[in-house]
Amino acid sequence: MSKVAVLGAGAWGTALAKVLADKQNPTFLWSHSADLALLINERRVNERYLPSAPLPPTLRATGDIEQALSGAELVVFVVPSHAMREVVARARPYLPQRALLCSATKGIENDSLMLMSEVLIDELGRDVEPRLSYLSGPSFAKEVAAGQPTAVVVAGKSNDETVAVQHAFATERLRVYQSDDVVGVEVGGALKNVVAIAAGAVDGLGFGHNARAGVITRGLAEIARIAMVKGGSPLTLAGLSGLGDLVLTCTGELSRNRTVGYEMGRGRTLDDVLSHLGHVAEGVKTAKSAYDLGVKLDVDLPITSEVYRVLYEQKTPLQAVVDLMNRSLRKE
Ligand SMILES: NC(=O)C1=CN([C@@H]2O[C@H](COP(=O)(O)OP(=O)(O)OC[C@H]3O[C@@H](n4cnc5c(N)ncnc54)[C@H](O)[C@@H]3O)[C@@H](O)[C@H]2O)C=CC1
Ligand SMILES: O=C(CO)COP(=O)(O)O
Questions:
Q1: 101 contacts 215 by C-beta, under 8 angstroms
Q2: Which of 83, 186, 210, 311 has its Cβ near the most Cβ atoms within 10 Å?
Q3: For residue 328, how far is its CA from the centre of ligand 2 (angstroms)?
Q4: Residue 318 lies in domain
Q5: Catalytic site residues (predicted)?
Q6: Ligand 1 atom 37, closest CA
Q7: Mind listing the pLDDT tens digit for each residue in 14-39?
Q8: Distance (Å, rounded) from C-alpha 186 to C-alpha 181?
């Protein structure tokens, strides 16, 4: 069994660390809060972020990133996307030379408009690319931790390394597919969160199943457009990290992004919703990045643009729906 380091002790980091530790890998779960690490070790559960999942003795939390990384053969980055650059820089001096590096974060960095793969390469250098992979797909942390059947995908440029990560995560309950389309998998995982906010808003406004299905399908078209411009394959977006994650997040009540949209559709303000959420909703920041990316790359992203206006320009969700419905008619 090999030592694993999971950087980020939120819901998803804790669930993935539990999967790896349940497979008898000595697993270190790093939290930037030393107090949270102490509490996790003491209570054998992450009460703050994943209270439903008892943690095995093979999992140890730590606030010391050097301790987490020393001798690790697999390093999983699962911090919110806005913290990725800072955490990668903090990890850099201690990363073992040959460790496999996998990101399970979904987002696009504000201002630089970089995908997480681009942030990692920016911080660590192009040489690490063969060791990098990206895990995405429809996977609520709570269900994965409970051993509910789940399918995800790991994408990487180098076949052997990606297969190694696929096998590291795979269990009888967690089926892991492999892909070489890093851009498609990452764009799908990041942008579905923005579409989930739109789908939640439509539900919060009291519209029906037709509206939600329309948002999912036209949202998928937007995601595929931007993925293709960045060099990804539209076929990837018909898979787990596109359609799969859209279906989950646009319909599942466990989704934090859908919740943000739903509550705003019911009339609450963004600040109010976020102050009570207790977790990250990546779609909020990614809406801004995606909107800017659409302008920069000249890609038409109508749903994303309306989500951006609702989140950042005080447009009402109802007006956003009216404007989307009254755009000029076009071919599908
Ligand atoms: N929760 C889920 O079901 C899934 C989440 N993801 C993705 O995983 C990523 C992490 O999400 P969650 O674990 O759910 O978030 P969470 O909101 O449950 O926890 C966030 C974690 O990040 C830590 N954090 C915040 N700022 C930090 C910083 N500056 N440096 C280091 N750590 C910091 C927090 O202390 C906390 O431990 C996101 O990109 C999310 O989209 C992906 C699939 C499933
Ligand atoms: O990415 C997720 C499931 O695949 C989690 O979605 P939320 O962040 O909206 O909860």
A1: no
A2: 186
A3: 32
A4: 183-325
A5: 192 (proton acceptor)
A6: 10
A7: 999 999 999 999 999 999 999 999 99
A8: 9
